[in-house]
Design brief:
Elements lengths: L24 H5 L3 E11 L7 E7 L2 E7 L14 E5 L5 E3 L2 E3 L2 E2 L1 E4 L2 E4 L14
Amino acid sequence: MTDPVPAPAPAVVPPAVPAPAPITYEDFSKLDLRVAEILEASFHPKADRLLVLKVKLGEQVRQVVAGIRASYDPATLAGRRVILVANLAPAVIRGVESQGMLLAADLEGKAVLLAPDREVPSGAKVK
């Protein structure tokens, strides 16, 4: 008598990610998205996953703490244009103040900074 052939294991399907609740245009318009130029970047002194950036937003310079250390070498960031949430309330992250948030896509757990596709002055509004 031969042993029965085991049935193949069922395919593992990840659960569907529920879509966030829709927002109105009025909700979206509360965001002040701006083009910013990274002036300098350094390692956060108290966090392995964070970088501290100085960004130019028009005539203003701000400090932003971003969780992009696994994706970007600080030495390669100066001069890059990025998209910044300019009206996010300041927050202290691991002892360092952050005055905005960069927009990035998630690609297999790595951050990919979002940027304009041509030269745009820092401070330009994103619509």
